């Protein structure tokens, strides 16, 4: 047990992504606050450490016969940025407008019996307002820099180099914005009673809550891939100290 309790939460998820189910269940943040030990994370949430370890062991056992890890775990640098754009950014662009429409409809119909929907709708709008420019910054500034870094690396010493400082600034900005998104998601979850459907919820209301659960899980995975896999790879390559601790980064170093 001690082996696991002293490991970083981000590391535990990178070693076995199926463990996200356990962390989602106990509401332990593995994406924005993954750079702390399981022991510290449980203490911060006031959860019994032994229960979490037991749940992780059970999840590991259930996945013992599944050898294959998700293919994105093996991706590095620009390939990982491409994957994030194609999956998570595309998902958000497709889902957010539809979800907003549904949210507005449900709020109009149910706001008298569930006035918390009015605040929740405002918070959801704030989430969209943060996410759209955030994705644009990644797609137009940070990810192209990562691709350029890979390109110049493959062209050898003669190619113009990207300066550490010019890369560190967007990395930090994105991490800061991830924290803000994480905070907004928590606010939404709290306002809507952990997305549990009230007894009088109609099918549209239930559809909205299920959509929010999916959105939350996807965003956790999305931010986890960026904070705990992609950004540490870039920092290690550039020799920039990792503010989350060197052991946050995953796997072998990315060498363009
Ligand atoms: Fe992203
Ligand atoms: Fe991001």
From TrEMBL:
It holds the Pfam family ScdA_N. Gene3D superfamilies: nmb1532 protein domain like. The keyword Disulfide bond does not apply. GO terms for cellular component: cytoplasm. Its main location: cytoplasm. It comes from Eiseniibacteriota bacterium. Residues 83-233 form the Hemerythrin-like domain. One of its GO terms (molecular function) is metal ion binding. It comes from the Bacteria. It is found in: Cytoplasm. InterPro entries: Hemerythrin-like, RIC_family. Transmembrane segments: none annotated. Keywords: Cytoplasm, Iron, Metal-binding. This is Iron-sulfur cluster repair di-iron protein.
